[in-house]
């Protein structure tokens, strides 16, 4: 895989950003532009050719269109499509081949932008895109420091996610259960062995996971405490990162449905308490808390991209009780859903 790198001695030069939405029948025009363009697909599939390379970019993926390279749609789309696009210029950018994190610059002031990759946490990127769109609508179309720095933050988020993803892919056996307690600013995982213990958010072995994980049900309802056997340190070390990554990916895809800790555990053939402890040892949060995080991330996206009533959004992200949703949202974000929506109200769309 190729990545574009750029050391930051200041912000990137932001040019423009937008959110493209189209139904069937659209095809990307053929063109060459004098800036870099990042495209982040949220829904559907984007068929595109970049230079001589043809690809079908799916939801959750980003691609980087290099300056001066022709790109064009390869076919007319047959389903709905939604993506963000960002035009910017990088100082002294260079392209390198990177098969693993060992090939990447280790300076945390260096951007790492993949030519194409699936990012681990697309909702975080979507929120930043929405905020930048709002700021651009207010303070554009001329270049300004606010947009420059916010665009730089967006690119740094992608860079950190890319570096972390490649680091864990390089040596997954190094990141066994109980090993990862955080992520550095440059995207490299922090191991428990480096600090002599677990992270400050991790519960001791055998401890309850907190209010969210004490109940089997997520969201509304009383539920009951999960049962099952406690994992031993030996069994924890035998299970690597990959199984918990699979659990997290499934939670991400299904968080807004009516799922519970017990349902996730049954899906992957664990007892609920065993899964919760294992999951927390890897990611620093319990299963129920992870479901809540993904629900609130999705709610942020809907609040900033749609005019749907808050009660409808609550239902869409898995909460039957809008008042309970509002309490959870404020506890997580510090804002009510209405305050969050009012903070970034302006959107820029382009469509056919």
TrEMBL record:
Keywords noted in UniProt? Activator, DNA-binding, Transcription, Transcription regulation
Query: Which segments cross the bilayer?
Result: none
Q: Name one Pfam family in it.
A: HTH_18
The record, for SUPFAM superfamilies, names: Homeodomain-like, Regulatory protein AraC
- Segments of this protein annotated with the region Disordered: 196-235
InterPro entries per the UniProt record, alphabetical: AraC-bd, AraC_XylS_family_regulators, Homeodomain-like_sf, HTH-like, HTH_AraC, HTH_AraC-typ_CS, RmlC-like_jellyroll, Tscrpt_reg_AraC-type_HTH
A Gene Ontology molecular function term of the record: DNA-binding transcription factor activity
Q: Where is the HTH araC/xylS-type domain?
A: 245-343
Q: Which residues form the signal peptide?
A: none
Q: Where is the composition biased (Low complexity)?
A: 200-209
Q: What is this protein called?
A: Helix-turn-helix domain-containing protein
Upper classification of the organism? Bacteria, Bacillati, Actinomycetota, Actinomycetes, Bifidobacteriales
């Amino acid at each position: 895989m190729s990545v574009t790198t750029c050391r930051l001695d200041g912000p990137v030069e932001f040019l423009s950003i937008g959110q493209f939405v189209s139904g069937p029948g659209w095809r990307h025009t053929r063109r060459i532009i004098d800036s870099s363009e990042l495209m982040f697909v949220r829904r559907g599939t984007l068929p595109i050719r970049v230079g001589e390379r043809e690809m079908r970019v799916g939801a959750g993926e980003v691609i980087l269109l290099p300056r001066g390279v022709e790109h064009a749609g390869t076919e007319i789309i047959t389903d709905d499509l939604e993506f963000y696009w960002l035009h910017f210029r990088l100082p002294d950018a260079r392209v390198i081949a990177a098969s693993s994190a060992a090939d990447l610059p280790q300076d945390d002031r260096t951007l790492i932008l993949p030519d194409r990759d699936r990012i681990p946490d697309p909702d975080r990127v979507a929120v930043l895109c929405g905020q930048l769109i709002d700021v651009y609508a207010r303070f554009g179309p001329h270049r300004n420091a606010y947009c420059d720095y916010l665009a730089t933050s967006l690119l740094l988020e992608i860079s950190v996610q890319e570096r972390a993803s490649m680091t864990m892919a390089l040596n997954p056996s190094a990141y066994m259960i109980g090993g990862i307690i955080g992520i550095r600013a440059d995207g490299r995982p922090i191991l428990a062995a480096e600090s002599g213990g677990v992270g400050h958010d991790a519960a001791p072995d055998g401890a309850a996971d907190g209010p969210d994980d004490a109940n089997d049900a997520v969201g509304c309802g009383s539920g009951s405490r999960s049962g099952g056997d406690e994992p031993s340190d030996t069994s924890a070390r035998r299970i690597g990162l990959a199984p918990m990554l699979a659990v997290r990916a499934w939670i991400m895809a299904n968080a807004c449905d009516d799922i519970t800790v017990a349902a996730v555990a049954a899906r992957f053939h664990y007892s609920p308490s065993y899964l919760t402890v294992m999951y927390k040892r890897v990611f620093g949060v319990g299963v129920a808390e992870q479901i809540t995080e993904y629900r609130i991330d999705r709610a942020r996206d809907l609040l900033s991209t749609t005019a749907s009533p808050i009660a409808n959004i609550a239902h869409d992200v898995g909460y039957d009780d809008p008042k309970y949703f509002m309490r959870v949202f404020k506890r997580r974000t510090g804002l009510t859903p209405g305050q969050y929506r009012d903070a970034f109200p302006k959107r820029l769309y382009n469509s056919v």
